[in-house]
Amino acid sequence: MQRLDLxxxxxxxxxxxxxxxxxxxxxxxxNGRVLDERTTHSGTAAIEAWKDASSAKYTYVAHPRAVExxxxxxxxxxxxxxxxxGSPVDLRYTFILxxxxxxxxxxxx
Length: 109
Fold this sequence. Notes:
Elements: H1 8-16, H2 21-25, E1 28-36, E2 39-42, H3 44-57, E3 60-70, E4 73-82, E5 89-98, E6 101-108
Parallel strand pairs: 1-6
Antiparallel strand pairs: 1-2, 3-4, 4-5, 5-6
């Protein structure tokens, strides 16, 4: 499998995503935000709670397959598989980085 050249904060996110909310929240700026399933989670406490709730509901793993840049955004396509209907599915993770951390993440089909 080809290794993607992901920026360090994005690599760190996908590693942290296999752990807990605290690990994921550390990847973000203090005012970072996540948009997932039409809900925005702002700030590290909300991001930690979002990840913990997702992990309680689903067991999944995301495998980044492709990355492209568009203006300030990094768009990562990842195959996500787990115990949810329709698994596996390709999701698009759109990251905006700021000072070595994630300022914004949008997850969409």
